[in-house]
């Protein structure tokens, strides 16, 4: 008899739990629907952080379409379309401040390479992506010498030459890591069988792309130990 009563109590206990769980789910769903339909969460203010090359005026104009949208429902996919049109865009993070404020934290690509074509300066990333045409030199950047027609902004200067993409990236990274007084700020790719760089009035022949770090270190040692700086 005791066991029967205990089973009945357990059965009632489980039934109460199921009822409470069902009520909780209904409550959560109801609150969710109310939040989605409520104007209290409509976005009224959008701000931007991190953009330097992408104009704030452009972002303000494009983001107008998000005003009035429910803050809960706005996702990264809603903002990507108007960012992807700009070659400087790399990534964006959304920060929501309830009930109605949205901040877009923008990460931009960095111009690191100066490439002159038809007498004008064009800026590239270290991966060879064209960011901007007919502009000013980027300070501390790498000067790239080559004969290559310009792609559209946002596209790679060497779309079918991965070896050149890898080479300019490696050379730029070595340039940034170089702690000596001998600075190589130019990369000449006009002849891939004899890559060149320059230091002041010296022309340095590096040959093929292999062992680039060792060759540049050797060039630094030759210049310093041979006391030919300024020659």
Strand % is: 15-25%
Strand order of the largest sheet: 6-5-4-7-8
The percent of residues in helical segments reads 25-40%
Q: What's the rounded overall pLDDT mean?
A: 88
| Large-scale geometry | elongated
Radius of gyration from the CA trace? 30 Å
What is the count of helical runs? Answer: 5
Largest sheet: 5 strands, mixed
Structural class: alpha/beta
Total strands: the figure is 10
Distance between the termini: 109 Å
Short summary of the structure?
This protein is an alpha/beta fold and 231 residues long.
Topology:
Layout: H1 2-37, E1 45-49, H2 56-62, H3 76-83, E2 89-97, E3 101-108, E4 113-117, E5 120-124, E6 130-135, E7 142-145, H4 162-177, E8 186-188, E9 195-199, E10 202-207, H5 212-225
Parallel strand pairs: 1-3, 4-7, 7-8
Antiparallel strand pairs: 2-3, 4-5, 5-6, 9-10
Structural write-up:
The protein is an alpha/beta fold. It has helices spanning 2-37, 56-62, 76-83, 162-177, 212-225, and strands spanning 45-49, 89-97, 101-108, 113-117, 120-124, 130-135, 142-145, 186-188, 195-199, 202-207. The strands form three sheets. Strands 6-5-4-7-8 form a five-stranded mixed β-sheet, covered by helices on one side. A three-stranded mixed β-sheet has the order 1-3-2, with helices on one face. α4 links the parallel β7 and β8. The longest helix is centred in the N-terminal third of the chain and has 36 residues, at 2-37. It is elongated.
Notable features of this structure?
231 residues, 3-stranded mixed sheet, 5-stranded mixed sheet, alpha/beta, 5 helices
């Amino acid at each position: 008899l005791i066991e029967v009563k205990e089973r009945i109590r357990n059965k009632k206990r489980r039934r109460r739990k199921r009822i409470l769980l069902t009520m909780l789910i209904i409550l959560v769903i109801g609150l969710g629907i109310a939040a989605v339909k409520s104007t209290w969460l409509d976005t009224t203010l959008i701000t931007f952080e991190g953009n330097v090359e992408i104009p704030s005026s452009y972002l303000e104009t494009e983001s107008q379409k998000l005003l009035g949208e429910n803050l809960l429902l706005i996702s990264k996919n809603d903002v990507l379309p108007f960012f992807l049109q700009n070659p400087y865009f790399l990534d964006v993070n959304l920060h929501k401040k309830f009930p109605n404020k949205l901040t877009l934290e923008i990460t931009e690509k960095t111009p690191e390479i100066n490439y002159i074509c038809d007498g004008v300066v064009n800026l590239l990333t270290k991966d060879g992506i064209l960011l901007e045409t007919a502009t000013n030199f980027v300070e501390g950047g790498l000067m790239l010498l080559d004969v290559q027609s310009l792609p559209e902004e946002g596209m790679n200067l060497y779309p079918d030459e991965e070896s050149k993409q890898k080479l300019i990236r490696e050379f730029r990274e070595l340039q940034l890591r170089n702690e000596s007084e001998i600075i190589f700020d130019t990369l000449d790719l006009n002849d891939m069988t004899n890559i060149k760089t320059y230091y002041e009035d010296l022309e340095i022949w590096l040959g093929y792309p292999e062992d680039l770090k060792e060759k540049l270190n050797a060039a630094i040692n030759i210049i310093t130990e041979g006391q030919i700086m300024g020659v």
